[in-house]
């Protein structure tokens, strides 16, 4: 199977990260650094913030979970958009809270509707930017307007899992992407999530982090399991940050291939909103399940986000040129088959 369903890095892990991990293995009898201090310090230097404004977790999904456990519970609710990351409903349910979903607008978050849906029991907002699975970007001014409106008693999770891809596209398209580092100084209720799973190619190791104001992070950190990020994973993440060549190769391949694949799919009559991520949202404008099944029969796995409320779409990870050609050949057959 060619797996184009999980938005992994098609170029693999950073080679520097693999070497660092191998070196770290000989200390496997020791517990890892619970706070991941060298990694926090490196990230702090990278972003020019304080290490205390960073919390390292076992993937950004774990960050989502511990924030939800900190502020949600029975009788409380979170607000998000329909057609967004599947973990938001799963995590909200797991802590016994209710999730309020507002409809998508132009394939993306409708932040005015999210703000309007806040009620006295709301404690959390899940906001993915760019959004998964639609790949859309919410402009900086809209996010700013939204953050000003949200009451301080409601925590906003700004989920920037695709940060590096969005930043790369934004630079090329001449628009600003995010002011997250300034916003965490201005808004005491804002937490920003980023991950090593995407551009760094370390999805299997489970390392992510949360940027935010120290007092809030301190509360959230109380929910973190002891030693949840292994030492090889911490070493790999540190090395991956130094591997600019791998990062640039990944971003360049993604941008080139996004353009090519979007053109090809659009040419076939598929509606593909411009992506800001490492995947394409393909609106087939008809039931997408049969197409996804036919693709699977050809050995190609894509995500059919029916469970996310989007029965007419498939989401495909942008691969290497070779992988994308294989996908396109199979897609053409699956798309043109009757039914
Ligand atoms: C919007 C969004 N947030 C978070 C994640 C989770 O990433 P991680 O591997 O860091 O848990 C993903 C992964 O696909 C994602 O799409």
Note the beta-strand portion.
5-15%
**CATH level-two architecture of the largest domain:** 3-Layer(aba) Sandwich
What order do the strands of the largest sheet run in, or round the barrel if closed? Answer: 2-8-7-6-5-3-4
Helix and strand run: EHHEHEHEHEHEHHEEHHHEHEEH
How far apart lie the N and C ends? 23 Å
CATH class of the largest domain: Alpha Beta
Helix content: 40-55%
Give the biggest beta sheet.
Answer: 7 strands, mixed
The domain tally reads 2
CATH topology of the largest domain: Aspartate Aminotransferase, domain 2
- Average pLDDT confidence is 97
Low-confidence stretches: none
Radius of gyration: 20 Å
β-strand number = 11
Note the main attributes of this structure.
single chain, about 350 residues, alpha/beta, Aspartate Aminotransferase, domain 2, Aspartate Aminotransferase, domain 1, 2 domains, seven-stranded mixed beta sheet, two-stranded parallel sheet, 13 helices, binds pyridoxal-5'-phosphate
How would you characterize the overall build of this protein?
- This protein is an alpha/beta fold and 339 residues long.
- The protein folds into 2 domains: 15-242, Type I PLP-dependent aspartate aminotransferase-like (Major domain) (Aspartate Aminotransferase, domain 2), CATH 3.40.640; 245-336, Aspartate Aminotransferase, domain 1 (Alpha-Beta Complex).
- The chain is built from 13 helices and 11 strands.
- The protein has a 7-stranded mixed β-sheet with strand order 2-8-7-6-5-3-4, sandwiched between helices. Strands 1-10 form a two-stranded parallel sheet.
- Helix 6 (140-149) links the parallel strand 5 (122-128) and strand 6 (155-159).
- Helix 3 (60-71) packs parallel to helix 4 (87-94) and helix 12 (289-297) crosses helix 13.
- The longest helix has 24 residues, at 244-267.
- The radius of gyration is 20 Å and the shape is globular.
- It starts with a strand and ends with a helix.
- Bound molecules: pyridoxal-5'-phosphate.
